[in-house]
Design goal:
Length: 181
């Protein structure tokens, strides 16, 4: 009986030692690998939410300015000040809307060009001419889509600084459908 108890006691001590070593490895893994990744993830989320807050604050400011314009928009006789404020607001809204979209489109096109060049090199290295032709076809399609997007926004009239006057920015789709401003 004593031999059995000693044997079980030895096995129990060995099992406890194995569990302790595993726990040390788990704690080391947590502290050296998981914690830095979690910290980086949290910082990324913080930056994202900060960026979203700034965007929403800009939107809120634009909405507030638009509401103030609604209040003064109903008089029968518009003053020069009213016209100037309206023109400036439209100018700011157009710039605000187009600027992030151009930045985004530029980034996407840059990534497309970079990826396309790498893919082309791989295809040429593998001597896969059919895939290279397919890539060229896709690239031409993308270029046509970009040109079509550029042509949709037409500026009819602009001030001395090249900025559109109020009511003079139209989308091509509005004119082709017979719509009016």
């Amino acid at each position: 009986m004593r031999t059995l108890v000693r044997s079980l006691s030895t096995k129990l001590r060995i099992a406890i030692q194995v569990v302790d070593k595993i726990l040390v490895k788990i704690n080391c893994f947590r502290d050296e690998e998981l914690w830095p990744q979690l910290n980086e993830f949290i910082q990324g989320l913080t930056r994202m939410w900060k960026s979203m807050l700034e965007c929403h604050q800009s939107q809120c400011q634009a909405i507030g300015e638009a509401k103030r314009l609604d209040v003064i928009a109903f008089p029968k006789h518009f003053s020069d000040t009213h016209f100037e404020v309206t023109r400036k607001l439209q100018h700011d809204v157009i710039n605000w809307t187009l600027s992030p979209m151009r930045d985004f489109a530029s980034t996407v096109l840059h990534l497309w060009d970079h990826d396309k060049a790498e893919m082309r090199q791989r295809m040429l290295a593998n001597k896969d001419e059919r895939e290279v032709k397919s890539l060229d076809k896709e690239d031409k399609k993308m270029q046509k889509e970009i040109q079509a997007l550029d042509k949709r926004m037409v500026v009819i009239s602009a001030d001395d600084n090249g900025m559109p006057f109020a009511g003079h920015v139209i989308c091509q789709s509005e004119t082709t459908k017979g719509g009016s401003l």
